[in-house]
Amino acid sequence: MRGYFGIGVEGISKSFNVGNLFRSAHAFGASFVFTVNAAYRRRDGKQADTSDAVSNLPFYTFPTVGEMVLPKTCALVGVEFLDDAVELPSFHHPRQAAYVMGPERNNLSPEMLALCDYVIRIPTKFCLNVGIAGVIVMYDRLLTLGRHAPRPLLPGGPKPKNLPPDVYRSPPPLGEVELAERGEFAKGGGPKA
Hints:
Layout: E1 4-10, H1 15-27, E2 32-36, H2 42-45, H3 53-56, E3 59-62, E4 75-79, E5 86-87, E6 96-101, H4 110-115, E7 118-121, H5 130-145, H6 174-181
Parallel strand pairs: 1-2, 1-6, 2-3, 4-6, 4-7, 5-7
Helix pairs in contact: 1-5
């Protein structure tokens, strides 16, 4: 997948949720993680961050929204449960993006929303846990920007290219092939008596 992404949180107070989000970010190939105005304690976050993402990825802590610095071409994407936000299934992810999640029991601050290039929402009946919401956004990014075979129209996965259709089927015993070719198979599948 071309481009890069980072993911972070603003104003969060539950370190376990941050650890969960950062572990998932590490698994999805994030380039960096960050917090803004957050009460995150690494010791507590490590309970959920079993991959130790903050030791394996660049980890930025910004005391305030005004002190947050992102790479020059990086689009800031707010993830928030707002009526006027773009619904995730209709959103085209920027190639270079930083996703920022709001706190557990509140919204992204007006200052953060003003900085966002885009604001998206997951189309659910109510807000989700920060870690779960982050995973959904990262998975959607992977699906839409990753190089995967297109989804088939019928249930199941895509068929491998350049393989005959019965490549995964065991060949029938030769005796059965000969009987079938001569029309000597009974209705139940065995030889005719």
